[in-house]
Structure formats: C-alpha cells, structure tokens
Amino acid sequence: MPNVSRALSLSQLAQEERRQGRSQEAIALWEEALGVDPGNTNHVIELTNYLTQIGRAEQALQVCENQLSGNQGVALLWMQKGIIQINHFGDTKGAIESFQCVLRHEPAYA
C-alpha cells in the first residue's frame, strides 16, 4: 500500500506542476509515479493525455507501447493507444487494430 499512496502523491504533484506550467517537472513526476506503481493505468492516462496536449504525441504513443509490452491484457492501455493513433497520427489501421485488442480483452467495451 505505501507504493500506491506514494504514486498517488507523485501524480498529485504532477498535476500541480502541470497547472503551474512546468511541463518537464510534471512529466518527470508522472514517470516516477509509474515507476513506483507500474500497474496503475490512471498514471499512464494522465501522462499520455498531457503529452498529447503539449504536442508530444509520439512520446505519448511510446509510453503506451512501453506499458503494453509489460501487460498486453489491459484494455484501457489499448484504448488510449488507439485514441492517440487516430487523433494525432491519422493512423486508422493502427487504431482499428488497437481497438480490436480492447474488445478481445474487454468485450463489454463494445
């Protein structure tokens, strides 16, 4: 439990850094939160959403891919990857493949 609360604290600090306009600090804190609590998809979603907001969609996509390499069964990671692929790269084929993975792992998401 200490890792989860530490990761949550880091994520909250990252949100504050984001509000203050300190991008690098925010990103570093979210990355640290992921290191402390690697299974928490909330940190991935927050980080990748922020990265796309500041024009770093390639890095956001890489974060998704890195997370998926260690855990192929997390539908939300596939969903986030598909959203980034279609919205930021116009990669319809890649997005469809990602969304198909979502449905394989969570058919209820249809």
Q: Can you write the helix and strand succession as a string?
A: HHHHHH
In round numbers, the mean pLDDT is 94
- Dominant shape: globular
Helix percent band: over 70%
Q: How many helical elements? A: 6
Strand percentage: under 5%
Question: How does this model look, in words?
Answer:
The protein is mainly α. The protein is built from 6 helices and no strands. Helix 2 (23-36) runs antiparallel to helix 3, helix 3 packs antiparallel against helix 4 (57-70) and helix 3 (41-53) runs parallel beside helix 5. The mean pLDDT is 94.
Observed structural traits:
0% strand, globular, 110 residues
List the helices and strands and how they pair.
Layout: H1 2-19, H2 23-36, H3 41-53, H4 57-70, H5 75-89, H6 92-105
Helix pairs in contact: 1-2, 2-3, 3-4, 3-5, 4-5, 5-6
